[in-house]
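Field reference: "sequence" (input) and "structure" (output). Example, Cobalt-precorrin-5B C(1)-methyltransferase:
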Amino acid sequence: MRMEEYVIKNQKKLRLGITTGTCSAAAAQAAAIQLLLGVESHAVTLRTPKGMTVSVPVYLLEADADRVSYKVVKDSGDDPDVTNGTDVCVTVAYAKQRVREQIDGSQDRSCAFTSESFPYLTLDGGIGIGRVTKEGLEQAVGQAAINRVPRQMIFAAVADVCEKANVSEPLHITVWMPEGEALAKRTFNPKLGIEGGLSVLGTSGILEPMSEQAIVATIETEIRQLHAVGEEKILVTPGNYGQAYASEYLKLDLTKSVKSSNYIGDTIDLAISYGMKDFLLVGNIGKLVKLAAGIFNTHSKVADGRGEIFAVHAAMAGAEAKVVQEIYDCINTDRMLDVLEREGLREVVMQSILAAIEKHVAGRVGDTMRFGVIVFSEKYGYLGQTSDAERELNKWYIL
């Protein structure tokens, strides 16, 4: 059985999935039902924070008089998610019983989560659930990486069973994922300071295909962490190429850098909202040229405009009409730069484009934050920078 709810995105019918938070709540509810009511479950029904009711298949792992474990197989729908198909497991036990380390890896319960609404319940992460090692996340250092909404869902799911069973005896809930530690290496968790496993995530309980919200949320988490340790400057790159150039050629310290992906505008807005004073953006011309037209989401499905931007600035620099047309017809920015290099116009056109980038970024930033932008290409290397980039650059040199 799998979820059969759909959304239409970009004229495509895409299947919804469920979050690790929903998986955990479903497994917890099934475990509580068997522990307290003695009934084995094959599926449970949950109402997610999004308001959607879902039926989730559950599978019994083990059961005895004091503890029961169930799992849910994560169904990510059509969302590209590394957790798709993995087991999300939950053990519910009477609190007087210690959950065996070799099965679920439960930690010192002084780090366990509690609930004001349900004081007889405690919650922790076991094997494959990451532990927080840096400040600035939703959880305290040392606690399991189980986010607020999933915690609420898990507590509520178990408490509902307790009410039906008329039981208020203390229970301990442990979420664990056998493959979590290995899968976490393919996520942002190591950079966020979450070690040893995955996070239990979800704000709506439902995974909608296309993970734009998840990417922006991760960017916000990284910026919030910088803010939490008193940092007021931020180094931003769209991706791996930008980071490699910043490190290898500009010799910048990347320990406090953030990847914006295509969401440069969102990253600027978040940096402002968290009080950053200095913003340095380093990236490939193929993405950053779009800023010259005020395009702050650089995904190709949102907008292109690279040929138009280069062609207009070449024309403004005096290029002949046939050269402007040739630039417009180029398939990528390196080819456009080849034409400009041949015509002796590369430097003047790049200065013009950078002036436009500066104008649009300044319009978004206002007087809230100082900024600099540095652009490069794989073929030509350094292409130029905005007027205040040198000042921002100096703040990032490794001493």
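The chain has two domains: 6-207, 212-394.
Confidence is low (pLDDT under 50) at residues 98-107.
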